[in-house]
Amino acid sequence: MTNFSLEGKSCLVTGGSRGIGRAVAVALARAGADVAITYARSADAAEEVKAEIEALGRRAMAIQADAVDGKRADEVIQQVAKEWERLDVVVNNAGITKDTLIMRMSEEQWDDVITTNLKSVFNYSKAAIRPMMRQRSGSIINVSSVVGISGNAGQTNYAASKAGIIGFTKSLAKEIASRNIRVNAIAPGYIRTEMTGQLSEDVLKAIESSIPMGRSGESDEVADTIVFLASDASRYITGETIRVDGGMAM
Q1: Which residues, at least 6 apart from 82, have a Cβ–Cβ distance to it below 8 Å?
Q2: Of these residues, 39, 124, 158, 190, which one is catalytic?
Q3: pLDDT confidence of residue 195
Q4: Residue 207: what pLDDT?
Q5: Which residues contact 32 (CB under 8 A, 6 or more apart)?
Q6: Ranges of the chain whose pLDDT falls below 50
Q7: Residue 236 is among the residues annotated as catalytic for this protein
Q8: Neighbour tally for 76: CB within 10 Å
Q9: Contact 95, 117 (CB under 8 A)
């Protein structure tokens, strides 16, 4: 029987205070999970998400952590696994953009995006494997992008980081599938968030005209896919990248 419930499961969402991360954290809680989030600077926003999760009757944590700090990633994973006695799902969502054409891109802009977007996935995945191996179960879900599949001018750093996540996902899935730990990725297309809300109406229309479904995506549409990958309904899926893009990268 298909089971989308996350009742009794413990989840961690990195970068969970805003945008897609916030929608994912709340969706996991609605499905019955206890949810911890990490945040870099947005303490007030993180507390709002924590309160929203608790209002749904679930336990919540909001933990300040720099996603690129491997030692801190270990501490966060240990804190969640110890306090809630298990860790079932990790959603690696933390990420940034610093877009510009490569001729104008500084080494710092390249390094910042690669490190934040890609190294953070390594940090939290590696740390999470230990408690998941003890349980002999777990689901790691990495947030990539259609840009990592199709590329995009002005985003060589971002595209490289998101393509790297897809390769990382497949490799790790092969390493730990025998331990009943699944690793999958999602590749969102153009999703309406605070980050994309700064675009002009003309630019928005041009983007939407390139999407077969004719509209932008919503954060909760990405979140619903992540709930599926976190649940037992996807128990025989690993190493996959699911595009949530309205057909944009077909």
Answers
A1: none
A2: 158
A3: 63
A4: 84
A5: 5, 6, 7, 8, 9, 58
A6: none
A7: no
A8: 25
A9: yes
Contact 75, 125 (CB under 8 A): no
Which is nearest to 247 in space by CA: 138, 150, 122?
150
Do 2 and 27 touch, CB atoms closer than 8 A? no
Query: How many residues comprise the chain?
Result: 250
Q: Is 21 in contact with 14 (CB distance < 8 Å)?
A: yes
Q: Which CATH architecture has domain 10-244?
A: 3-Layer(aba) Sandwich (3.40)
* Residues near 123 by beta carbon (within 8 Å), at least 6 away in sequence: 67, 68, 69, 70, 73
Handedness of CA 2, 52, 40, 197 (dihedral sign): positive
Alpha-carbon gap, residue 163 to 167, rounded angstroms: 7
Please give the radius of gyration of the chain, using alpha carbons only, rounded to the nearest integer: 17
Tokens at residue 225, please? 């896919």
* Cα–Cα distance, 173 to 167 (Å, whole number): 10
As given in the structure block, the two tokens for residue 152 are 């995009």
Q: Per-residue pLDDT tens for 193-231?
A: 876 666 677 777 888 888 999 999 999 999 999 999 999
